[in-house]
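hey so u asked for the seq, here:
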Amino acid sequence: MKKKLLFAGTCLLLLFLLTNPGPALLAAKDGLSLWLNTLLPTLLPFLILTGLLLHIQLPVKIPGFCIRLCHILFGLSPWGMYAFLFGKLLGFPVGAKLAADLTYTGKISRQEGEYLLTFCSNPSPAFLLTYLGQTCLKGRYSASRLLLPLLLADLCCMLFFRFFVYKGQTAADQMQLYPGTITEKKTSQARSTGALLDVCIMNGFETITRLGGYILLFSVLSPCISQCPLIPDTIREILLCIMELTTGLHRITSLCLPEYTIYLASMTLSSFGGLCVAAQTKSVLDGRLPFFPYASAKCLSTILTLCILLLWI
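ran it, structure tokens below
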């Protein structure tokens, strides 16, 4: 059934490209512009440098109180905190990729990696303050009203999965793996500096190119949905808004809706991330971690964000 649906969807998209070359070309240009001007310069250097850091065999002494603090506050190991912090700072889908890479290299347990997926991959503060706050909402809302609701929703989501789903079995059962020293498992890759740097650069370009492919496909899919007469108008607007985060936010703010409705919808969509981000996240997980913890956490976080915003207002 999945293959049949994929085949039918691909044929419909090809038919749209052939019958509507103008809108398809414009959408493809917009998608590639987003990838080239935003995603490539912001994420590629980080992907290369973190890949290099994860492959260097350099023992790092971590103070015992730092390990205990990470575990008490977040239920994470030091490497888990590394993925959490950089995922928060750099946004989708960096946190998920770091969780998958750290699990693959043996720096964290698989269960801790799944636990990280529930709260470490979110829109970055820079994206929320600049694009959402200034470009879309025209600076009408303070930084606290843009950041705090999402942070509270992520905190509630983290506490739920920590104590009710994984029940403390994240870093707690793996503390013997972190006796204060961070090391890396043996790998079969070349150990020379040049070869290691080449591997990290190629891996970074592979990941960023894969993300660009998803942005391109979803960008072309949007005008296809907008011109489909079989989809009701309300369903069409919802699909177009959740298809890709940046274009969805721009579309929401251009609708003739009350100001607070636009604010609620924009914040809720930012928490969800959109279908394109979900596809990118599944791609960077690369089968090393299951997609379900991320998907279920995003649905819960979206509901929590909406509830917090309604109470706030």
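DSSP finds 14 helices and two strands in the chain. Strands lie at 60-61, 181-182.
lmk if thats what u needed
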